[in-house]
Amino acid sequence: MIPVTGLGCICAAGKSLPACLGALFAGGPGPAPATRFASGHPASYPVFEVLDFESDPRRLRTSGLLLHAAREALLDAGLAPEDLPRARTGVIIGTTVGCALNDEAFCRAYRAGGHPGLEPMERIFRSNPAEALALELGLAGPCQTVVNACSSGTDAIGLGASWIRAGLCDVVLAGGADELSRITFNGFISLKITSEEACRPFDRDRQGLNLGEGAALLVLEAPGTRRRARSFVLGYGSSCDAYHPTAPSPDGAGLRRALAGAMGGIAPAEVAFVNAHGTATPDNDRVEALVLRDVLPGVPFLSTKGCTGHTLGAAGAIEAAFTVACLEAGRIPASAGFRTPDPALGGAEPVREATSFTGGVALSSSLAFGGNNAVLAFGGPR
Amino acid sequence: MNVTVQGIGAVGGFGCGAENLALAPGAPGALAIPWGEGTREIPAFLAATDPLERFVPRRALRRVDHFSRMALLGAYLALEDAGRTPEGLALVVASGYGPTATTFSLIDSMIQDGDPCTSPIHFAASLHNTPAAHIGILMGITGPCLTLSGFEGMVPSALMAARLLLQEGRAERVLVGAVDEFSELMAYLWARSGPGPVAGEGAAFLLLSAREEDGPGCCTLEEAGAAAGPWPWGAQPGAPAFALAAAAARLRSSRR
Fold first, then answer.
1. Single pTM value for the model
2. N or C: which end of chain A has fewer CB within 10 A?
3. Using CA atoms, how far apart are residues A188 and B149, in angstroms rounded to an integer?
4. What's the average model confidence in pLDDT over A62-68?
């Protein structure tokens, strides 16, 4: 059991975890047209953007979002940066956009026959999220940026817990961060899995996802820490579908393996709720709902992407933070965007209203391009 | 826990296979990029992936880019070298820059044809974990698959991840490697950055095990260390993976 002693989160739902949680229970913000970039699509594809947020222009916005979440998490844990054991503090962060050499203006200038300066690329190199955070805090422990597509944040937390179990670190700052990007925006639209309306996870009429941006960070500490644990990482499972680069395996075999890995020693009856990946794409929601129905029958589940959008490499971390906060609160919000049950989901449907529970264990799952599945199990303080 | 190197797979400017890692650096190849009114030849140790067709039908590689092909070839060679099947495998892949050629092609599709014509194929292949996806699908790896991105520390970091997967019993064996490509973008960055060591591209993979029944393999990870230069694979973020593979191959040869 790895104690979680601090949490920080920023996304369209709010600029702190309490603000986000308040928004989730209030039904959340809706998506809106992107303000930071324009697009040439005839239709509008709304996004969940973090408004009124500026970051250091020498680094990608992804780094700025991450640093914002990190400051909140450290404050929450009661740790000043100078308190962190420099060589025994690890940093592990999931991302997608935060590592991509995809500066559009640079590419345009180069393709136009120019000799663009290297600053845009150097800015990306400076922004490797784990390295940027370690540098900012002066840390010299293990440092990893996980690029497992949309399960990156979940994997980062699971692996960070492994570092502590293995005795490599006393403290691990684990999470995920991703910014909205025009290139990613166009890419998801090209795959025809983006909705022109507010997304509706697990709904019969779901049309696809809304992109979002944000970051979340968990402070993980070695057992025996003097600081108060808000929760514990109880388990982590990951697997590969070995099926298709962008579609989940229809039988959900990979997700079942990841669930089994995370739940080692946890009985289904102990699980109070599941914070599902729930992107609102037809394929993801069908596979996920059917697996949850089979493996955890009757266990309430929800998707929070109706309040945050799909924040890609940050999603797993943001949802892990929400999972811990809901465990503390003893209730989960309604699954935003859900109205009409989908007969194809075999009777599985997410919670329609805020729901209280008494159990002490919750799961957070992520599915990703590349066929990755990752699941975290959290338990409340006992 | 004793982690042994059971198999070595590498592809780069030196050719492919563990035995070629010991070659003295030959003359580098070159990549021509637009420069002013003409072109400029940028020297680099470039990798050919034709031998991949020995493992994967050409038809299955139609939509697989050069970046992923290098990783696939390195991974297949390591598994073949170890004489193992993919059963019980986990995968750890590290890359400094990711699929830069495909990322540039993705942006090209937006620039040339407009946002609505953004290429879905290039987008899907522009993710850093695309090589891991292809390796997973083609080999049938159903265990944990992890892709990392970084620079100086990425290979030690990948090895640490692989060791933890074995230590925690999350996999029986781990294929761990590094891959980077010398694309037009990287060639331009190299040219603009001023004189530097000749760059290279390729993939270097090791099959690691902690199972006693697998035998001693080539050596333990600790024994392998890193081979001293000069290196035939050129400067690239994954260079320490090549050095480790070369050292393991040398140790195995010396013990035969």
1. 0.97
2. C
3. 22
4. 98
Report ipTM (2 d.p.). Answer: 0.97
**Look-up of token digits 């891991």:** B132
Q: What is the mean pLDDT of chain A?
A: 96
Taking an 8 Å cut-off on Cβ atoms, the answer to whether A245 and B134 are in contact is yes
Q: Which two tokens stand for residue A25?
A: 């229970």
Q: Tokens 């943001």 correspond to what residue? A: A318
Helix and strand numbers (H, E) in chain A are 11, 12
Question: Rounded to whole angstroms, how far apart are CA atoms B242 and B179?
Answer: 10
Which residues 9-38 in chain B show a CB within 8 A of chain A?
34
Q: Is the dihedral of CA A183, A280, A275, A53 positive or negative?
A: positive
Show the tokens assigned to A114. Answer: 């120019």
Residue B161's nearest CA partner among A311, A148, A178, A179 is A148
Q: Percent of chain B scored above 70 by pLDDT?
A: 100
Q: Is A194 on the interface with B (CB under 8 A)?
A: no
* Cβ neighbours of residue B38 closer than 8 Å, sequence gap 6 or more: none
Phi, psi of A62 (to 5 degrees): -55, -45
Q: Which residues of B touch A93 (CB under 8 A)?
A: none
Dist CA A91 CA A139 (whole Å): 8
The bridge status of strand A355-356 relative to strand A361-367 is unpaired
Residue A382 has pLDDT above 70, yes or no: no
| Contact yes or no for B168 and A107 at CB 8 A | no
What sign has the CA pseudo-torsion A228, A231, A232, A236? Answer: negative
Contact B138, A244 (CB under 8 A): no
User: Which of B 75-94 lie inside 8 A of A, CB atoms?
Assistant: 91
Q: Please answer yes or no on whether B150 and A143 come within 8 Å at the CB atom.
A: yes
To which residue do tokens 């845009």 refer? A120
C-alpha closest to that of B198 among B38, B59, B13, B52: B13
Helix axes A315-329, A17-25, angle to 10 degrees: 70
Rounded Cα–Cα distance for residues B184 and B101 (Å): 7
Under the phi-then-psi rule, with left for phi > 0, alpha for psi from -120 to 50, and beta for the rest, what region is A226?
alpha
Three-state DSSP class for residue B141: coil
What residue has token string 């309604």?
A334
Helices and strands, counts by H and E, chain B: 8, 10
In this complex, the residue of A115, A128, A190 whose CB is nearest that of residue B150 is A128
Q: Chain B neighbours among A 251-290 (CB < 8 Å)?
A: 253-254, 257, 261
| Ramachandran quadrant class, B189 (left: phi over 0; alpha: psi -120 to 50; beta: rest) | alpha
Q: Which residues of A are catalytic?
A: 150, 277, 310
Neighbour count for residue A348 (Cβ, 10 Å): 22
Average pLDDT over residues B160-170: 97
Q: First CA to last CA across chain A, in angstroms?
A: 12
